[in-house]
Amino acid sequence: MRRLSRTLLALSAATALGSPALAAPAPGTLSFTTLGTNSGPIPRKDRAEPANLIRYGDQLILADVGDGAAEQLAKAGVGIDQIRTVLISHLHFDHTGGLFAFLALRYQTSGTNPVTIYGPPGTAETVKRLYAAMEHGGHAIQTMRMAGGPDAGVNLVEVQDGTTFNAGDVKITATENSHYVTLKPGAEPRPVSLSFRFDAPGRSILYTGDTGPSAKVEQACKGVDLLVSEMMDPGLAIARIKIARPGGPPAIYDLVEDHFRREHLSPTEVGKLATACGAKSVVVTHNALERDELEGARRGVAAKFKGKVVLAEDMQTF
To answer: What is residue 170's DSSP assignment?
Structure first.
C-alpha cells in the first residue's frame, strides 16, 4: 500500500507540473520509449521490468506492463488515465507484474477515459482475476469515485497471430513468435506469445516481445525503420545461474539452457533478425547483462547487422 501511495503521489505531481521527465517526441512522429529494460524475473536496481511506451500524436500505447510500470510512466510525465491502449505480449509474470497496480491506481484515481487491453488468449481471465483481488481494498475507494468498479471503461480483447487493429492512426499487427516452442505438443490451453508491429505515417517499428528465432517475426518486420528486440546471452545466463544455485541436477541446467537458446535471441541472432528485417536501426531491450558485458553483446549484434545498434537503458526514447 505504501508503494501504491508513493506511485500515486509521483503520478499526481507529474500530471500537475505538466513537465515530462523526458523530452517529448516531435509531433507526428512515431516513437518508442523503453520504460523498463530488464530481463525478468530477478529484479535489478538499475533496470525496471519490461514495459514500453509508444507515442504517435495524442495516442499513448503501453506495451507490456512489468512491475513498476506505473512509476515509470510517472517518470515519463504520463498519467495512467492518458493510456488508451495496453498490449500484453505474453502472460509471463515479468511482463504482467505491474498490471494490478496499473488497474488499481486507475480505479483509485477515478480514471474516466476508456482503455482497451489487447493480449493473447488468457488475458481476459487474468485481468478478471485481478479485479477480484481488488475486492477487499476497494471499500474505501467508493467514496472517491463517481461511479463504477475497477472494470469501468476497461475493454478486453484477445488477439491471435495475424490480428490487426488500430489505435488512432497507428496500425498494430500481432504476430505469434517462438517463445513457447519447447512446450510439449498438446498442452491446452496452448499459450501464445506475440510480437507487435506499429505502422504510422512516416515510420514503422516492430517490438519482438520475448521470442527465439522466428520466420514469422522475420516476415512481420520486413521494411521496418526500427527493430526493438529482446536479447539474452545463453552462455553467460546459464553460467550465472550455476554460480547462484550450485549443485543443481545437470538435467535442470540443460533444460534451462535449452529454453534460453531456443526461446530467446542471442546477440548474433538479434543482428541476423535486424538484417532480415531490413531495419535501419536496432534497439536491444529485455537485457540482464552486467555493465562490463554490454560491449561484447553490442559487438555480437553488430557482427551480423551493419546499421545502428543501441543497447537501451530505462527511459530512453527512440
So the answer is: E
All three cell numbers of 191 = 499459450
CA distance 251 to 237: 16
Strands across the sheet containing 154-158: 154-158, 115-119, 85-87, 59-65, 51-56, 31-36, 316-317
Structure letter (DSSP) for residue 184: P
Under 8 Å between Cβ of 231 and 266: yes
Residues in the chain: 318
* pLDDT tens-digit readout, 224-257: 999 999 999 877 777 777 777 787 787 777 777 7
For residue 83, give the C-alpha cell: 493510456
pLDDT higher than 80, residue 176 = yes
What CATH number does the domain containing 276 carry? 3.60.15.10
The total number of structural domains in the chain stands at 1
> How far is it, in rounded angstroms, from Cα 266 to Cα 101?
32
Cell of 227: 527493430
Determine the structural domain holding residue 313 and report its residue range: 2-317
Q: What is the per-residue pLDDT for 19?
A: 29
Q: What are phi and psi of 213, to 5 degrees?
A: -55, 135
CB 38 within 8 A of CB 49: yes
Cα separation, 318 vs 316, in Å, equals 7
Sign of the Cα pseudo-torsion (44, 10, 2, 130, in order): negative
> Grid coordinates 551493419 are at which residue?
306
Amino acid at 132: A
Q: Which three cell numbers stand for residue 44?
A: 535489478
Cβ within 8 Å of residue 75, ≥6 positions away: 10, 14, 21, 22, 35, 315
pLDDT category at 26 given cuts 50, 70, 90 is low
Residues 6+ apart with CB under 8 A from 88: 64, 65, 95, 96, 99, 117, 118, 119, 120, 123
As a whole number, the mean pLDDT across the chain is: 87
Under the phi-then-psi rule, with left for phi > 0, alpha for psi from -120 to 50, and beta for the rest, what region is 50? Answer: beta
